[in-house]
Amino acid sequence: MIRLDPATASSPAPPIVPGWAVPRGPVTSEAEAAFLAGSALNSLDNLVRSDPPWAGAWRQRLALKCAAAAVSVVGRTEDEAALRDAWHLRQAGDDPGPAGTILAAWKRLAARSPGVDLDTLRSTAGLLGLRWGDELAPLVDRVGDLTRSGAPPPFAAATIAGDVQALRPDAELLGWWLADQVMALRLRWPRPVPILVAQARSNAFRAEGGRGRIRLGGEGFQRAVCVALAQAAGEACRLAGDLAGRAARLDAVAPKLRAKGAGEAIRLLLDDDAVPGTLQTTRLSRWGARRLFERLETLGAVRELSGRPAFRLYGL
């Protein structure tokens, strides 16, 4: 009999952002924006600290959403499905392509403890398609300064994004990536939560009166980041609620599974956005994995994410 960690079934429902903390229209006051961001981040902080068993899948799905927004920022057209395919359908060691490496940057953000050293900064710039220059190196110390500062997390995140833009106008994606890092460091989260770049083209950054967009580091940028964080926290908490229900269903059907290696497959489903139907482990053959995922789908415990009859991908 297979059983998940008892915490999977007993985890309380994820917190939700109160309706009054979700922006309903233009927010022109910095004080109001900061209040909304603080209220929404309180719910998100409670969720992060509860560390549910499906937190890995949650972060990785947020990373996918951020990567889809990021490729749009740089003028590419890949959506979430295309990025998921680029990542999972490549052979081991293959280059996932420019869009796939952008996804790699956000997947790595979601999977590692927060913190930035020079090697991390340089490698991340490469994943984001940026030419490395020594003018970017001081950003490591800048992240440290903001982490130790008393600045509210949303303002610290806005500051680092603006600093990157001032140094290198072509490095917008790096600014958003570092903003999520600074948020996690200021809030002392065990892992960053990828959320900010997903709002980069949202109405949070629309200039007053609909006159263009608020630029990174420009007038009104801190207020816009606060509004964006309030929106992003609400979306992240709603996604968590959805995944919590699916994880509970997976826990409920786990005792019905008899396949050797099923426990490992379930662990992967809880840790990542998607798992290939061709998964192969020391205890689970490709044929066994296919039968396992088809049974889980029949039982309503997983979803097939690709929509294809072959090379299928499964997730919560």
Structure description:
The chain is an all-alpha fold and 316 residues long. It has 2 domains: 28-241, Fic-like fold, CATH 1.10.3290.10; 257-315. It is 56% helix and 2% strand. It contains 12 helices and 3 strands. A 3-stranded antiparallel β-sheet has the order 1-3-2. Helix 3 packs antiparallel against helix 5 (97-111). It is globular and about 60 Å long. The two termini are 21 Å apart. Mean pLDDT is 91; it is low at 6-10.
Question: What are the defining features of this structure?
Answer:
DUF1403 family protein; DUF1403; single chain; globular; three-stranded antiparallel beta sheet; 316 residues; 2% strand; mainly alpha; Fic-like fold
Summarize the helices and strands and which ones pair or pack.
Elements: H1 6-10, H2 30-50, H3 55-73, H4 80-88, H5 97-111, H6 118-127, H7 139-148, H8 153-167, H9 172-187, H10 221-253, H11 262-271, E1 275-276, H12 286-298, E2 303-304, E3 313-315
Antiparallel strand pairs: 1-3, 2-3
Helix pairs in contact: 2-10, 3-5, 3-10, 3-11, 4-5, 7-8, 7-9, 8-9, 8-10
